[in-house]
Design goal:
Distance between the termini: 18 Å
Mean pLDDT: 85
Number of strands: 9
Strand order of the largest sheet: 2-3-4-5
Oligomer: single chain
């Protein structure tokens, strides 16, 4: 059985969203591939401020993701790769959801909307950097039509980071994005 993806709303993060992100990401499962523990509120205050600057400068950022009711459920979007290692100079697409929203298709729906916004902004290609073992994010990247392009040695961890790529200029990935969720795999999809 397949089901359609849910409706999501994306908006430039406000200062108040720092508090919402802090609350929704305050979960060890959510943070498993993002340092393993909850971040301080100040991290989200800086991150939302940086995203507002990115939106003003580039026309895209990590947007606040809300469900149909307007409840903040996470973020998705894109930003220039922020590290001194890995795909320098590339635009990275990413997503993070609160635990209670996993497995419902929100990350895929929001990432598809992000790709459309990036095409409109003239971004020619994107990468998604994923830690090994993060099967939910690997599944979202593959649903978007992204393919594993290379790996990069992680500077702080004893593992290689997976780099998925998608060409947006002519979308020659050879695959159409999978815009439905297959019911048996929903649990591991986000």
């Amino acid at each position: 059985m397949n089901r359609a993806l849910p409706a999501v709303r994306l908006r430039v993060p406000t200062h108040e969203d720092a508090f919402a992100w802090y609350r929704v990401f305050d979960d060890p499962d959510v943070m498993e591939f993002h340092g393993g523990r909850s971040a301080e509120l100040s991290v989200y205050e800086e991150l939302t401020a940086r995203q507002r600057r990115h939106d003003a400068e580039f026309g895209f950022c990590l947007w606040t993701m809300a469900d149909e009711s307007g409840r903040v459920i996470g973020f998705t979007g894109a930003q220039p790769w922020p590290q001194d290692w890995g795909p320098k100079g590339e635009i990275e697409i990413g997503w993070r959801l609160g635990r209670e929203f996993w497995g419902r298709g929100y990350a895929t729906a929001a990432a598809l909307a992000t790709l459309e916004r990036l095409r409109t902004a003239g971004v020619p290609r994107v990468v998604a950097m994923v830690r090994p073992g993060n099967e939910r994010s690997v599944a979202v990247a593959r649903r978007l039509g992204m393919e594993l392009a290379q790996t990069f040695p992680h500077l702080r961890l004893a593992e290689d980071a997976l780099c998925f790529r998608l060409d947006l200029s002519n979308d020659n990935s050879g695959k159409e994005p999978d815009t439905t969720l297959n019911a048996p795999s929903i649990r591991n999809s986000e």
